[in-house]
Amino acid sequence: MERTQIPLPLQAQILMRLALAVCSLIAGNVLLVFFTVTIAAPFFLLALLAAISGGYLYLLVSRGHYLILIGTVLNVERTAILHRPKAILIEVEGKALRVVLRSRHRIPSVGGQISLYVQDSAPICEWRGMHLLRTYLAVSAGKST
Known about the structure:
Helix content is 37%, strand content 32%. The chain contains 2 helices and 7 strands; from the N terminus they run H-H-E-E-E-E-E-E-E.
């Protein structure tokens, strides 16, 4: 089996999930020493779920079950009150694709390039005459290498 290079945004996602697992495991152990099992149990559960999530993402990426969609940002939809980015409209291979964003700190600029890392079995549905993507693995500004 040939080893492939994992793209940097996906490496960052895997490392963040595994770091969350390690930090919550340490916090659970500290709380177990000073308090009871009932207080430490949520941290152990979080550590287990984060480790499973990171391991599944690594398995998915190492097997090559992801796609890279590179497109141009056409529009950024914002929330009504705080004006945070809610969704972006991108053009990928001549088709309009609306992507619902989650926990974005950097706002994508209109007219800029964006790379979306998507699982190859991710559902894409129709919404108001365009394609809608509700989930993605990672996102990065600019073209990927």
